[in-house]
Amino acid sequence: MESPQEHQSEPQTAIPTRSRLFTLPAEMRLQIFGYCVPHNCAIKVTNAMYRPYEVEPLVSTRNPSRRFSNTRPRWTNILQVSKEMSDQCLDILYGDNLFEVYLNRGGEATLRKTFGKENLQRIRYIIAIAPGPCFTGELNPPDIPFWTMMIPNLNRFEWVTQPEQKAEENRSDIMVKRGLEGWMEWQDAYLDCFGEFLVPKVQFRMRLDNGESEYRQLGNRVFRRGPFFNTDGQQI
User: Fold this and answer.
1) What is the DSSP letter of 80?
2) Pairing of strands 215-218, 156-161
3) How far apart are the first and last CA of the chain?
4) Which tens digits make up the pLDDT trace of 11-22?
5) Cα distance between residue 134 and residue 136, in whole Å
6) Residue 114 in contact with residue 107, Cβ under 8 Å?
7) Burial of 13 (0-12, 13-18, 19+ CB in 10 A)
């Protein structure tokens, strides 16, 4: 005869319920996340002005007198809710913002040391900012492993030559001609590197810009430039 215990039902394991947010169409869900996660911003990446809040890169400012504490912005709490939500928000954070990589100011190295490979591969929009031929500082060769990893994942990619007005005004024609050859060799090394890793889906172009606008335009996309936060860490 079976014992009474054998007729007792086994305790039922609670089935985790999925958030109703993820039952919404993807387009609507990402629009909701967009109210929390910064997007459509042009992020200046240099070794001097780039101060990320851990996973959050949007702290660049065009006003060097303004400094930011290392306080983590409140909106980043959304990344702690679940892995699924975090992944989709990070896709917006890295994939729906423009990264202005200043080649003569350590932009490549700054991105590599700041973010992991998975987040770097989420980036879809990059402008490589090059100084003009009157630049007198050090020009380093391209970081080939970095561009090998980045370029195939991009949607749009631009090379922007952004001359410094003071440098242009203070150099004579003779000095410009002397520096032009070295500058062109440096530029060609980058363009050869880019050409090796460009794939058909990546739209690439070159142009000249003075860098003074409050916005950066990349194709039909417009990205707002910083500052993005006030001194209290609140988004503006």
Assistant:
1) G
2) unpaired
3) 74
4) 555 555 667 777
5) 6
6) no
7) exposed
CA distance 137 to 100: 19
Tell me the pLDDT tens digit for each residue of 164-221: 766 556 665 655 666 688 889 999 999 999 999 999 999 999 999 988 888 999 989 9
Q: CA dihedral in degrees (62, 64, 69, 73; nearest 10)?
A: -10
Q: Could you give the C-alpha distances from 234 to 35, 78, 97, 151, 227, in angstroms and in order?
A: 14, 16, 18, 32, 11
Residue with tokens 């590599």: 112
Is the CB of residue 231 less than 8 Å from the CB of residue 61?
A: no
> What integer pLDDT is reported at residue 154 of this predicted model?
97
Give the Cα separation of 226 and 72 in Å (integer): 18
CB 108 within 8 A of CB 101: yes
Please give the DSSP secondary-structure letter assigned to residue 4. Answer: H
Q: Are 215 and 225 in contact (CB under 8 A)?
A: yes
DSSP 9-65: PPPPPPPPPPPGGGGS-HHHHHHHHHTTS--SEEEEE-TTT---BTTB-----S-TT
Sheet holding 215-218, edge to edge: 203-208, 156-161, 125-130, 98-102, 41-45, 221-225, 215-218
